[in-house]
Amino acid sequence: MKVLANDGVSQSGIDALEKAGFEVQTTTVAQDQLVDYINSNEINVLLVRSATKVRTDIIDNCSSLKIIGRGGVGMDNIDVAYAREKGLHVINTPAASSGSVAELVFAHLYGSVRFLHDANRNMPLEGDSKFKNLKKAYAGGIELRGKTLGVIGIGRIGQATAKIAIGVGMKVVAFDPFIEEVDIPLEFFDGQSANFKLKTVSKEEVLKNADFLTLHVPAQEEYVIGKNEIAQMKDGAGLINAARGGVIDEVALVDALEKGKLSFAGLDVFENEPKPAIKVLMNNKISLTPHIGAATGEAQDRIGQELADQIISILK
User: Fold this and answer.
1) CB-based burial of residue 38 (10 Å sphere; 0-12 exposed, 13-18 middle, 19+ buried)?
2) Which of 55, 169, 228, 267 is deepest in the core (most CB within 10 A)?
3) What pLDDT is recorded for position 49?
């Protein structure tokens, strides 16, 4: 059995698959050459992340394929229903990267409330000549403790984010059209634990009460946060998106930042990846990362191992 990890896979995943008798290839094949490569090499399992698209051309023309695997949560780059109709197994790793994404959300939050993203731009340029000016400019930071975090989408990643927020001492309000109540367990280093029950509320209530808002939703056709939703938010609120590009109206976001309706945003994903809008990239009120939510060594190890376990279970 042959596995092509076209967007890469962790060494832990490779080791597990090879131990089970699979041949693992990590060649990155161009999108328009994938069909020929899969057929000529008789690939049985195609593993992707977000870069490679698995559409009907691959599904229809690669008879050796048995499994399509996505290292991560969202599968909008795969024609999942069609693949399953054609008898292919489609797998992903919904739990493996939750903690890493949640920590990145808080990296953006902590950095933004203390202006780190902007200070790190300006200190190398003016730190030696305008130190006092910069000190004054960045002196109005605020604490997260005691503030309210609004969570749109309280699935695995939303829950992991809520867990950190509770540990920080924040209040959490959440909206999810499919979930009424969740348990948020907190485990501590010394074996102690605590459990918090979180009942979801309306989207409007979350928007109205959140000091900071974080999105954890799949890709969808319409904006989750657009001009109307921003208008319902608190003046001076912050907004974080480490979910999917296109769930926030970036034009409305930039306008809200320029007018002072929102104080900051943190974006790990963008409407126009891999070429985000210049107005977004150049705005000094936006903390920016290049879609790295799951890009930790620990998460990639978990993803590779989880994919390997599923593949071995299906084919062995």
Assistant:
1) buried
2) 267
3) 92
> Residue 254 and residue 111: Cα distance in Å, rounded?
19
- Residue 272 corresponds to which tokens in the numbers above? 């126009």
- Is 121 a residue of the active site? no
For the chain (length 316 residues), average pLDDT per consecutive 10?
A: 96 96 96 98 96 96 97 92 98 94 98 98 97 97 98 97 97 98 96 97 98 95 97 98 97 98 98 96 98 95 96 94
Residue 273 falls in the annotated catalytic set: yes
Tokens 């979930």, residue located: 179
Give the pair of three-digit tokens for residue 175.
Answer: 């909206």
Q: Do 243 and 264 contact (CB within 8 A), yes or no?
A: no
Q: Positive or negative CA dihedral for 35, 293, 229, 162?
A: positive
Closest CA to 264 of 293, 292, 288, 237: 237
Q: Beta partners for 152?
A: 175, 215
Q: Per the residue annotation, which of 70, 156, 291, 302 is the catalytic one?
A: 291
CB 234 within 8 A of CB 208: yes
Asked if the bond preceding 274 is cis, omega within 30° of 0, the reply is yes
* Residue 244 designated active-site: yes
Round to whole Å and give the CA distance between 139 and 126: 16
Which of 55, 89, 103, 273 is catalytic? The answer is 273
